Amino acid sequence: MKIKLYQNDLPDGLDLGNVVAIDTETLGLNPHRDRLCLAQLSSGDGVCHAVQFSDARYEAPNLKKLLADPAVTKLFHFARFDIAMFRQYLKVDCKPIYCTKIASKLVRTYTDRHGLKDLVRELLGVDLSKEQQSSDWGAKVLTEKQLAYAANDVAHLHQLKTVLDAMLAREGRSHLAKACFDFLPTRAELDLAGWEEVDIFAH
User: Fold this and answer.
1) Radius of gyration from C-alpha coordinates of the chain
2) Does domain 2-195 correspond to CATH entry 3.40.630.10?
3) Which of 75, 87, 104, 124 has the fewest CB atoms lying closer than 10 Å?
4) Which of 111, 60, 140 is nearest to 51 (CA)?
5) CB within 8 A of 28, min separation 6: which ones?
6) Nearest of 44, 80, 31 to residue 182 by alpha carbon
7) What is the pLDDT confidence band of residue 117, given thresholds at 50, 70 and 90?
8) How do the domains of the chain map onto residue ranges?
């Protein structure tokens, strides 16, 4: 996959279509402590547009406009985390959303393996390397291996969506998936407000 790296924002006039695959890299899994370091985006055309947030600068008006655009579906794997990071650091709500992890959990009920690596292997026949998953994404200069890893996280999401959409339709669960996707911004807000470990729907 070809990688284009930008500093702190997408370039003016970049058109990524109406379905954009998105992922983030951070210093850790705590949105209040571990800063957003990289956002990678792809229109499914074999090009990854990666935005590196240098010196904790999060103005990014072009990226914010894209994330908030109601005409553009934001396609994630485990959207709950990524949109919480965008809300925390870019102060923007992502809508509308599609999450391949949620779609997988709704239709791949024959397994408990819903990670991106597992999905891509089973549904697309591709083996992803996760070697760089735990690395220093806050480094001033990212390595070629890091950038290749980041690009791989968005490279297959459009294909996964196509397969999962067919499975959701087959099982009559498309409406459930959409309802879950629509709830994700509220779920992220609850996470950031301190309810990340609490099931508010439980007795």
Assistant:
1) 16
2) no
3) 124
4) 60
5) 34
6) 80
7) very high
8) 2-195
